[in-house]
Design brief:
Layout: H1 7-74, H2 78-100, H3 109-112, H4 125-129, H5 133-208, H6 223-271, H7 280-311, E1 319-321, H8 323-341, E2 344-349, E3 356-358, H9 360-377, E4 383-391, E5 394-400, H10 422-427, H11 434-444, E6 450-452, E7 460-465
Parallel strand pairs: 2-4
Antiparallel strand pairs: 1-3, 4-5, 5-7, 6-7
Helix pairs in contact: 1-2, 1-5, 5-6, 6-7, 7-11, 8-9, 9-11
Amino acid sequence: MARRISISNKLLLWSLLLVTIFFVTSGWLILRVSENTAAAEDLVARNHEIGVAARQMAERLESVQENIRRFTLLGAEEAVDYVVEDIDRFGEILRDTLDEHPEMNEEWAPLTEEFSITIDQEGPPDKALEPNPTIRKWLGVLNTTLERNRSEMQRRLRELERSGRTAMLTGIWGLVACFILGTGGSLFLAWRLNRSLREIRRGIREVRTGGLRTPVRVATRDELAELGSAFNRMGVRLRAEERMRAEFVSMLSHEIRTPLTTIRESLNMIREGVFGEINERQAKFIDISQQQAGNLSDLLEKLMTVSRLESGRLTISPEPTDGSALLEEVAESLLPAASQAGIELETSVTAPRHPVRADAGRIRQVLTNLGDNAVKFSPSGSRVVLTLTPSNGGAEFAVQDHGPGIPEEEQDLVFDKYYRSEGVREQKNGAGLGLAICRKIVEAHGSTLHLQCPEGEGCRFSFVLPPAINEQE
């Protein structure tokens, strides 16, 4: 069995990977920068110092040569002192440089050998203009050093430039790699987590709307996989319990229907005086009993409808139906309850008088239930409007009330079986089955039951039915 890696461990490992890549790249950049810095320091400490010393010594030798010419041609006695001073200074610079850079001993060996410089006024003038052989030899050594040093500095500067460019590109590519890996990996982890969460949310929606139809599939090996497995086990138990409850409700409904029918028929016979005359007080209590028996019969019918819906035994028989006539019929059946509650009931038909394709009995059940709810929850003196309008070739049925409305957080719950908000439970009777049945019937017609509750404007339930197909076309 594959080992499970928790979500927190996945995120930790991924973070450590990104941090490792970042620090490796940063460390490599720091190393290259340190190497370039050391190379630059060495370049300054060696090549630059040697170049400066060589130029200073060459300047001293040129000064010596110039003073020799002055003494030879002009007889300037102070020129001899300058020659001695320049030679001494030349020797100091040479010794200091060799002490700092002993690697130059071999190259500058000719500068450290014994030498002689002759100053003579008796020679011909053109002879005095010729450079001293020793000076010429030393200048040649120093010029060679300066040329080599200049070439080496240029070469090392080019190497430093290439190294710096390489380090910069490597750093850029390292940052790009961190960004790509970080973004791509994070998106991949987010996609994997969201895919699992979408599956779980799908399962939750299916449980809310009637049961888990297909198992939740979570491909990861983490807490979400455990949650998905637990959710699937819960779905199996819920389906089993729902099936048992549906069977129990179906059995109980059938068992209650026969005695309930007998009770209603007996009450009707007593009310009609079959067993003798009854007084006014007895008639009043019989009417109450008949009303409660009717309510019980309605509840029983709803329970049986829900049982058939859950077992898949609810069938519809769509056929061409006159929508306007159906709407008027429902409005007429609602009129007594509306009048008793002091509510004005209106109908508005603007759809063309073309038939729609529907199971008339089931759609009548939907409209009646929606109308009953609208009357029940509307305040006295308000209006309830039943409308039929054209929509995409078919017709839209709608029931609009001006009651208190439904809070936004409960609008998705009112279609669940047995759901009733606390305020409704305390004020109105009911089992919370009507809207669930209406939604199932509308969905069986291939439509959707919509709810709109603008704040302060009541509720509007609507659905669209397709046009009837002319069989002769």
